[in-house]
Amino acid sequence: MQNTVWNAVGTLSSVTGKFVVAVATARLLGPTGAGALAYLIWISDTVGTLSCLGFPSTTTRFVAALNGEGRQHEASVLARWLYVRQLLAAGVGMSLILVLGTTSDRTASNSVWAAVAVTFVLQNLGTFNAAYLNGMQQFDLTARLNIVSSVLLVVGVLVGASTFGPAGALCGYILGNLVDTRKINRIIPWRTWNQKENKEMGNSI
User: CA 155, CA 153: separation in Å to the nearest integer?
Assistant: First the structure.
């Protein structure tokens, strides 16, 4: 019951934050600016969906299963193995955004496309972070991260959009995603990671 409540709180805070941002950007940027921002975020979200490759859902499912069986070390090894591959996929997605944005789409400047690429990477890794926490049944931590992230998103977008337009709003998205991403290195114990584990996990999968 407690996990359900925390999950609902986290989801509600995320949805509320995105709703407030949508209304605020529409008023601050006008139809043209809000449309340009929506297009850039759509690019980030689309590439993010394609580049996840099922790693987050796999992480949630098998980390939860291994922990339920009392195999915490194997759960950590699996999470690290998947996270490395998520990083590689994020790198490919970031390169794709930069190449497409700077060579074939002149909707925005190169610096704005770089901000889109950073937003994509942070969202991508934040999604993995949330998946890992859910697999560990740490819904309370996920909810708290969502609340802080949503507050930073709203504040960052409001300040950025009113000051620098769509580019500033993108900086707000970056700020909102920093919280989720910076927690991953504390959650996954990299000190125990080594090449032998990497090879063994690869062979088992």
Answer: 6
